[in-house]
Amino acid sequence: MPSKTPRNRKSASAFLPKVKTLPALQKAAGDCQGCDLYRRATQTVFGEGSPRAALLFVGEQPGDMEDRAGHPFVGPAGNLLHKALNEAKIPRQEVYVTNAVKHFKWEPLGKKRKHKRPSPSEVAACQPWLVAEISAVSPVIVVCLGVIAAESVLGRAVRLIDEGGKFHQSEFGPLAFVTIHPSLVLRQPEKKDREAQYARLLHDFKEIRKKLLTLRIEGARKPATTD
Ligand code: URA
Ligand code: SF4
């Protein structure tokens, strides 16, 4: 397949504001037409949370409920995410949540709207919003929930089996951690598998919390530098 030239490659970049504060980004993202996904979605679902969060969580894309509500992680996957954050003792003020893709991609299934995986070109088109959010929040750790998030943050192909549960250096600054998407827990038909996947998510969140505490202690111990 011939690679697309930058001229016809879809991208949100032309829609980004000059001054990239979170409120300005959120407002501008509301009008994004950087790829075709805005056409069938209700609205842009931008990231939310503490603007100074130490942990920035990246999901895949808004789901059906997020699309209607206009807020990220307010449906079943969001409930599970917040349950695991609480159990891992990660306070809300440490957290900002967003998605690799800001519009809901779906296909009709009877009367329902069935989630569809975003294509690599849609993930790439939406990446400028994510880069700008990461830069505005400036978190200590970017937590990638699932492969789509991990590939956008790390800027390369990712295999969860090899790279999940580990820290990685991200392309644009902060340390990244790759874990599963909470919907993987919900998708397991068997209770024992749901429990096992949830335990994995919780274990990873506890590792993240530990790392954050360690980094803060190390940061506090660092000798003061002079400019
Ligand atoms: N799943 C996601 O990846 N993001 C959301 O906001 C909700 C569900
Ligand atoms: Fe823009 Fe992203 Fe929505 Fe595509 S998915 S229209 S790039 S905000």
State the gist of this model.
This protein is of the alpha/beta class and 227 residues long. It is built from eight helices and eight strands; from the N terminus they run H-E-E-H-H-E-E-E-H-E-H-H-E-E-H-H.
Features:
two-stranded antiparallel sheet; binds uracil; alpha/beta; six-stranded mixed β-sheet; disordered N terminus
Describe the structure.
It is a single chain. The chain is α/β, with parallel strands linked by helices and about 230 residues long. The chain has one domain: Uracil-DNA Glycosylase, subunit E (3-Layer(aba) Sandwich), CATH 3.40.470.10. Helix content is about 40%, strand content about 15%. It contains eight helices and eight strands; from the N terminus they run H-E-E-H-H-E-E-E-H-E-H-H-E-E-H-H. The chain has helices at about 20-30, 65-70, 75-85, 120-135, 145-155, 160-165, 180-185, 190-220; strands at about 50, 55-60, 95-100, 105-110, 110-115, 140-145, 165-170, 175-180. A six-stranded mixed β-sheet has the order 1-3-2-6-8-7, with helices on both faces. A hairpin with a 5-residue loop joins strand 7 and strand 8 (about 175-180). The longest helix has about 30 residues, at about 190-220. Iron/sulfur cluster binds near residues 34 and 37.
Strand-and-helix sequence, N→C? Answer: HEEHHEEEHEHHEEHH
Query: What fold name stands as the CATH topology?
Result: Uracil-DNA Glycosylase, subunit E
| Main sheet summary | 6 strands, mixed
Task: Provide the domain count.
Answer: 1
Widest sheet, order of strands: 1-3-2-6-8-7
Could you give me the name of the CATH homologous superfamily? Uracil-DNA glycosylase-like domain
Spans of 5+ residues with little confidence (pLDDT < 50)? 1-5
Number of helices: 8
* Spatial gap, N to C terminus: 51 Å
